[in-house]
Amino acid sequence: MFKALSDPVRLRLLSLIAFQSEGEGRGEVCVCDLLGAFDVQQSTISHHLRVLREAGLVDCQRRGTWVYYWVVPSALAQLSSLLQSGGGREPATAAR
Questions:
Q1: Average pLDDT, rounded, for the chain
Q2: Which of 8, 7, 92, 16 lies closest to 58 in space, CA to CA?
Q3: How far is residue 37's CA from residue 16's CA, in Å, rounded to a whole number?
Q4: For the chain, which end, N or C, has fewer CB atoms within 10 Å of the first or last residue's CB respectively?
Q5: CA neighbours within 13 Å on the CB side: how many for 35?
Q6: The pTM is what?
Q7: pLDDT tens column, 47-79
């Protein structure tokens, strides 16, 4: 899950999907609404969305030409729990 979020574009995509899903009350966002937020090719956005989908963070449904994405609430709850608990690891110490 963390590997999927290690890329800044994927982290921003997840944030935009979560924000637009909650903000507009629809629970989903069209990929067409995400394309303008990035200065990368559509194929790059598609790749990053696929990585997020394979990690179980988002899900999607094709409707005609467009694909609609939404966050998977259980995955976000798990991510939140891991972040709050520190992932069960000791904090890394700075190298001297």
A1: 82
A2: 16
A3: 9
A4: C
A5: 10
A6: 0.76
A7: 999 999 999 999 999 999 999 999 998 777 777
> Does residue 5 have a pLDDT over 50?
yes
Which is higher by pLDDT, 82 or 17?
Answer: 17
Amino acid of residue 48? H
5 - beta bridge partners?
none
- CA–CA separation, 19 and 41 (whole Å): 22
Query: What's the chain look like in SS3?
Result: CCCCCCCHHHHHHHHHHHHHHHHHCCCCEEHHHHHCCCCCCHHHHHHHHHHHHHCCCEEEEEECCEEEEEECHHHHHHHHHHHHHHHHCCCCCCCC
CB proximity list for 52: less than 8 A, separation 6 or greater: 4, 10, 13, 14, 58
The residue that leads in pLDDT, 94 or 17, is 17
